[in-house]
Amino acid sequence: MSNVIGKSVNRYEGQAKVTGSATYSAEHQISGLVYGALITATIAKGRIKTLDLQQAQASPGVLYIATAENMPQLTPAANDWFSSHIYEPRYPLADAEIHYGGQIIGLVVADTPERARHAATLVQVEYESETPVINPKDASFITAPRTPGLEQGNTATALATAEYQIEATYTTAMELHAMMEPHAIIAHWQENQLTIYEHTQWVMLHQKTYATLFNLPLDQVRVISLYTGGAFGAKVFPWPHSILCTAVAREIQRPLKVVLPRQQVTTIAGNRSATEQHLKIGATSDGQLVAIEHHAKSYTSPVNPTWAENCIGVTPVMYTAENLSLKQEIAILNMGMPTYMRAPGEVPGMFALESAMDELAWKLGLDPVKFRLKNATTLHQRTKLPFSAKHFAECLQLGAEQFGWKDRPQHPRSLTREGKWVGWGMAAATFPGWRAMASATVRLFPDGTALVLTSANDMGTGAYTMITISAAETLNLPVENIQIEIGDSRLPNGGIAGGSMMTATLAPAVVNACQELLKQVNAKTATEALQVLRGSGQPFLEATGSSQPGMEGQKWAFQSWGAHFCEVEVDEPLGRVQITRWVSVMNIGRVLNAKAAASQVRGAVIMGIGDGLMEECQLDPHLGLPVVYDLATYHIPVHADIPRIQVSFVGEPDLNFNSVGARGCGEIGITGVSAAIANAIYHATGKRLRDLPLTPDKLLST
C-alpha cells in the first residue's frame, strides 16, 4: 500500500486555481457567444400590467428580449421541488404574476454584457400591486408536509412534573448564500444537441433535469462542471435563470451566457430561512433528562410552498428523553425561495437545542460537558436503531482537555482581561452520515500513470484530491502518478456533492474500480499489473467500479459527532464580541486527507461564526427586497474576526457505513458553533442571548 490515506496531501488542483488556469462556468470561450441580463420585479406581490420594451429593443446591440408573452414552451414538470428537481417548481416567465421581490420577469440578450445590462434598465414596467406578506407575524402557519414530527410518551405531563425545567424561544435570521463564485451558466445548442456549462453539485441530475425540461434524450444533453467556486447547497438543481437562459438560447440559436450580479443572487438563488424555535426541557435534580419539547417555525416562498428548514431533525439523535414532542411548521411569505444552506436544519436546530442544554445545565448547577455525557443517546430515537462507530464522548472529553475546560470558573462574570469580560462556552456538533450511488472508471498506462474518470464535481472541498488519494492507496502508486477527469456528464455517474456525502459515496467506487483493474490481471499492486500490461501490447488496462448503499441502514443509524469549545472577550460598553480561542474535535469515521479535513472543519467554523455574530438579511417591509444585497452590505467574517482554530479527530473507521470507513466532513463543523458562542457570552457577562445574530445591539439591550 502507498499509505497516503490519513496523511496531509496537497490539493490536486491547487496550482490551477492559484494560477488562474482553472476554468469556471462563466469562463468557457465559445465562438458567437452572446450575453443575457435579467429584468426583475420591483414589487413583492401583484401582477404585471404592462411591459414597455420599445427603448430596450432600440438600444444598441440588443438581439432579443424574452417576457411572459414570448417565453418558449417547456415540458410540464411536477409542481414541487422534490419531484421536479428544479429549485422553483414555477417555470420562469410562466405568467404575469409576481410572487416575491426580485422575481425574474424578463431577459435581455445583447452582443456584450454591458449592453445587455443597460438595455434591461430601459424596460418600463407597470404593476397592479398587492400588499405582500413580509412580516412573519402576519402569516398563517401549517404543519410542514415533508418534515415529520414525533410524539413519544407524555411530554406535557413529564414537563409539568419535572424537578427542573427551562422554557425559552430562540430565533435565527434569514441568511444569504455568499459563495465566491456567483451563479452563472452558458447554454449552447447545436441543432438538438445541448451543452450546458454550469456549476452544479450533481452533474448527472442536472443532465436529467435539462433533458426532461427540453424533451431530449439524455445522450443529447452534456453538462460540464469542472470547477465550482463554492455551493453550500445552492447549486444542486437548476434555478429559473438557468432554465430561462437555456430556453432563450434555443430560440435564438446562439450560445448564451447569463451571470448573476450579487444583488440578484440574494433574491433568486436561495437563502436560509429565518426560524423561531420554542424549547421546553425537563430534568431530574441529578441531571437526567425526562422530556424535550421542540417546536419550530420557518418560512417559505409562494413558488415553493412545501419547503421547511428542518430544525427538529437534530433532537432525536442527541439526548435521551423518554418523552419527546417535535413539531415543524411553515408559513408562506412573499420572499425568494429558501433552499439548502450548509447543514440545513441542523444549524438553527443545534443553536436552539445546545443553547437550551446550556441554560438547563446552569440551572442544575452541572458542568455542561458532564451534563451532555450523562444524557447522550445510544439510539436514534426516531428509528430506534443503534449508532454505528459513535465517539461523541471522546469528542467532549478530548475537547475539554485540549481547551483546559477543568479550569473554567463556575460563575458568570468571573474572568476579565484588559478591561473586558472573558467567557468560555461549548456546544455539541452533529450531522447525518449519508451516501448514495457512484461509479468511476480507472485506466492504467504503461508509463506507470493512472487516470480516474467520473462525472463527480469539485465545489472547492477537495474532491480531486480525495479521488487521487483513493486511487493511489489502492494501486500503490505515488499521488503524482494519478490523473483525474471529472465534472462531465459523459463520464461515469459520480454522484452528488451535497449532504457531506461525496467522499463517502465516491471513494468506495474509486477503490472498487482500482481493485477490479488489479483483479483483471491477477495483480496485488499496480507494479505487478504494469508488468502484465507492458507485455500485452495493450494501450492501457481499464476497469469500472461502483458503490451504493446496501442493507446497512436497516441495522445502524449513521451520524457524525463533534464538540466545539470557544473563548470570547466581551467589551461590554460597546457590545463587541471577539472570539479569542477555538477548539473543535470531530468524529467522522476515517479521515482520508488530514489537511483537507481540518480545513473543511475550520471553514465550517468560520461560516458558523458568521452565522452566530453577523449574518442577517432583512427584507424591506413594503418592497420585499433585501436591504442588504452584496458583499459590502451583507456582513461575513474577515480575518480579524477569526482566532486560531484547533481541529482534532477521534474514532475509528466506520466500516459498517462503507468499505473505506469514511463519513462526511463538510457540514458538521458549522453545527453548534453559534450556540458555543452564545454560551460563552453568557459565561462572560451573565446575559443570555437567544436571537441570532448576536449583534452588539442585542448585548447592549439585554
Write structural notes for this entry.
With 702 residues, the protein is α+β, with helices and mostly antiparallel strands. It is 27% helix and 25% strand. The strands form six sheets. A seven-stranded mixed β-sheet has the order 3-5-1-14-11-12-13, with helices on both faces. Strands 7, 8, 9, 16, 17 and 18 form a six-stranded mixed β-sheet that branches. Strand 17 (289-300), helix 9 (315-318) and strand 18 form a beta-alpha-beta unit. It is globular. The relative contact order is 0.14.
Characteristic key phrases:
seven-stranded mixed sheet, 702 residues, alpha+beta, six-stranded mixed sheet, 27% helix, 18 helices
Concise account of the structure shown:
This protein has 702 residues and is α+β, with helices and mostly antiparallel strands. The protein contains 18 helices and 27 strands. The longest helix is centred in the C-terminal third of the chain and has 20 residues.
Total count of helical runs of at least 4 residues: 18
Tell me which oligomeric state these chains represent: single chain
**Strand arrangement in the largest pleated sheet:** 3-5-1-14-11-12-13
Amount of helix: 25-40%
The SS-based structural class is alpha+beta
Q: Report the C-alpha radius of gyration, rounded.
A: 26 Å
State which percent range the strand residues make up.
15-25%
Low-confidence regions: none
* Biggest β-sheet strands, sense, barrel: 7 strands, mixed
Shape: globular
Mean pLDDT: 96
Distance between the termini: 59 Å
Number of E-type strands: 27
